[in-house]
Design goal:
The chain is of the alpha+beta class and about 270 residues long. It is built from 5 helices and 11 strands. The strands form 3 sheets. The protein has a 5-stranded mixed β-sheet with strand order 2-9-5-4-3, covered by helices on one side. The chain is globular, with a radius of gyration of 20 Å. Bound molecules: zinc ion (ZN).
């Protein structure tokens, strides 16, 4: 699933494609993927800025509406300039004078919301990882009553926005913290390490345009390069690059967690 670095890469990519452009036509090929409002409401408006909150893209417009997009498991946004045929699995088309933005989603779990300005589709969203207000003290308050594993807590979008399964494993490896530790047992000093690792890993992943393991692509069809820099994710039985121990895989809340049992002993 695209996480913060992938969505941020898509955001930067979209700025070059559609920011400042006017929507001239729309085609909801799979109407149930329009989760709120109607696409007709954005015809004739300009996309004025492309933003991100957690794993959501949101687009401010010159009209009354804000457009939110969530890619979920397999969504990508494809840019087409000419009259060539659409690729397969296109669910929504947003047309501009100079091209069209295609929401491709084989598994159809993604969605688009056309909301009134100021209304957003999420219930609770934690601080952004790069927000200066996100300190170890703030994080400790959020986790104080939570005895769930720290890895599972990092996936909760209400705690920190944008972290998903790949980066949660990578962050805890970088911070040398055992992913099975109860979230409320992590000290302030250790939470500082978690935050520093979060920022380091996410920044590096954004620099690499995200991680492509299967579906994730930018609008020109290119994938991200960060898979080359993963240290533990999807590396079960491979040697840890630091200590040569075998990377282990466990399941936490139905999700795979990868970690080094020798390096992550804190
Ligand atoms: Zn190791």
């Amino acid at each position: 699933m695209p996480e913060l670095p992938e969505v941020e890469s898509v955001r930067r990519d979209l700025i070059t494609r559609v920011q400042g452009n006017k929507v001239t036509w729309v085609e909801p090929l799979l109407p149930r993927m329009v989760k709120c409002g109607t696409l007709d409401d954005i015809v004739g408006v300009e996309f004025t800025s492309i933003n991100r909150r957690g794993k959501f893209l949101f687009i401010d417009t010159s009209g009354e509406m804000t457009v939110y997009i969530h890619l979920r498991m397999s969504g990508t946004l494809v840019w087409r300039k000419g009259i060539e045929d659409n690729p397969s699995h296109i669910r929504i088309v947003i047309g501009f004078q100079n091209g069209r933005l295609l929401f491709r989603d084989p598994r159809t779990l993604g969605g688009i919301w056309i909301n009134r300005k100021g209304e957003h589709p999420w219930k609770k969203m934690g601080l952004e990882p790069f927000d200066d207000n996100l300190t170890p003290e703030v994080l400790q308050k959020l986790l104080v009553k939570r005895s769930i594993p720290i890895k599972t807590a990092l996936l909760d979008q209400g705690t920190i926005a944008g972290i998903g399964n790949i980066y949660a494993s990578e962050i805890l490896f970088d911070a040398k913290i055992d992913p099975r530790r109860p979230a409320n047992s992590i000290s302030n000093g250790e939470l500082l390490k978690v935050l520093n690792s979060t920022r380091t890993i996410l920044n590096a992943a954004i620099e690499a345009n995200g991680t492509t393991l299967k579906d994730f692509k930018l609008s020109n069809g290119r994938g991200g390069e960060f898979a080359n820099f993963l240290k533990v994710y999807a590396k079960k039985e491979e040697e840890c690059y630091i200590c040569k121990s075998k990377i282990e895989r466990i399941v936490q809340s139905q999700r795979s967690t990868f970690f080094c049992p020798s390096c992550q002993t804190n």
